[in-house]
Amino acid sequence: MILQAGFDGYHIEPAALILAAKVGLTTSPEPETFTLDNLKAHRVIEHDASLSRQDFAIGDNLHFNEAIFETLANSNPGSDVYNVTSAGQVQQARLADSLARNPNVTNSQTEFTIRSFESALYLSVMGNGSAGVAPKNFVQKFFQEERLPIEEGWKRPSSPIEISSLAQLADLIAQGSNWNATDECPTIPLGSGA
Prior knowledge:
This protein is mainly alpha-helical. The protein has 8 helices and 2 strands. The protein has a domain at about 50-175: Chloroperoxidase. The protein has a two-stranded antiparallel ribbon with strand order 1-2. The chain is globular and about 45 Å long.
């Protein structure tokens, strides 16, 4: 159902969502569904240095926070679009803010990858994934009002959003973020082993 909703609503190919959907299901007691409340579990999909939520250790990591979102909202001044350059700069600024305010910030390769793909996703869904741009008014409505900006003229992307195009955008965003790890990914045992 999640994969179909992603395709029907946003034109995201199931292959681009399958990993996030499977990981999301691990947060829920229900075998086939999850809620936003489930997804707030720290270090599963939820991460520090969010574009629109407080860090887990210092605030509400579930509900939209306008003060946090201002970093994105005010980025790329003088333009009516966000792009991969502004997305990378926002990612860098949000991490710097988290590192300054949160003594327990989590910043490993895992969180960095999630942040980069999330930014690639909002650019692709709200704008033109091939060009790596999205109109500011669409992105702002999507985050601030948690709705699709249909009234403002948004339309479902005409071409499917594929994992390869998201990866290309995420890589460009990552390059522009000047990221450095402050944590290592924890070892996760996959079995009892000998």
